[in-house]
Amino acid sequence: MEVEDDSEDYCSKEYDDDSEYEEEEDGLLKLNKGMKFETWELAKSYLDEYAKQNGFCFHKIRRVLDPNDNTIVRR
Q: Contact 38/13 with Cβ under 8 angstroms?
């Protein structure tokens, strides 16, 4: 998973199977634009833990837009 950032100043870090979660001094994970993950499973694992620490959950969605009028044709 890659989060695009339009600004010039962004944080980027790659995570692989052997990496530890990036934690703040207080033990909480941090999430920044531009973070890169080797696989969706690594990203999901990191985001699950981040969400759990911050009291929310997330889910992945997919939608297909009609190229003519940008309406959603499939979810």
A: no
pLDDT digit string (tens) for 14-25? 444 444 556 666
- Alpha carbon distance 30, 69 (integer Å): 37
**Would you say the C-alpha torsion 28, 32, 36, 40 has a positive or negative sign?**
positive
Measured between alpha carbons, how far is 56 from 50 in angstroms, rounded to an integer? Answer: 9
Name residue, tokens 């990036």. 22
Q: How many residues does the chain have?
A: 75
Q: For residue 43, give the amino acid letter.
A: A
| pTM greater than 0.70 (yes/no) | no
